[in-house]
Amino acid sequence: VQLQASGGGLVQAGGSLTLSCAVSGFNSDDYVISWFGQAPGKDREFVAGMRRSAGKIEYSDSVKGRFTISSDNAKNTVYLQMNSLKPEDTAVYYCAYTTVIGVPEQPLHYYYWGQGTQVTVSS
């Protein structure tokens, strides 16, 4: 399985960005793609996740109402629409893949990771 993340950049507070994660090499429709953010000096944290087969979606409390995870199954791509961005959203964002049940929020449950894309929100 390979994941290719893209879409990061520099944006002012209150602005928006859309991250993309292109997934390839999988052989089942029952998998989870999640986004994690890692700020400098901090642990990688769960942001949002989606289970493709069931449509189950989870968000961290810090992004509920601001971020939206979605997918284009024809393109095997998962998106993270990030609105009302705040300086504290600044991080490297990674997409990750797992087949573990539910939508796990711990990084250790994920088997494959994309390369990360930098999001910087200026105040």
Overall pLDDT score:
96
Global outline? globular
Over all CA atoms, what is the radius of gyration? 13 Å
Taken as a percent bin, the fraction of beta residues is over 45%
* Uncertain runs: none
Short précis:
By secondary structure, the protein is mainly beta.
Task: Explain this structure.
The radius of gyration is 13 Å and the shape is globular. By secondary structure, it is mainly beta. Helices cover 0% and strands 51% of the residues. It contains no helices and 11 strands.
Characteristics:
0% helix, globular, mainly beta, 123 residues, four-stranded antiparallel β-sheet, 11 strands
Write the layout of secondary structure elements.
Layout: E1 2-6, E2 9-12, E3 17-24, E4 32-38, E5 45-51, E6 56-59, E7 67-72, E8 77-82, E9 91-98, E10 112-113, E11 117-122
Parallel strand pairs: 2-11
Antiparallel strand pairs: 1-3, 3-8, 4-5, 4-9, 5-6, 7-8, 9-10, 9-11
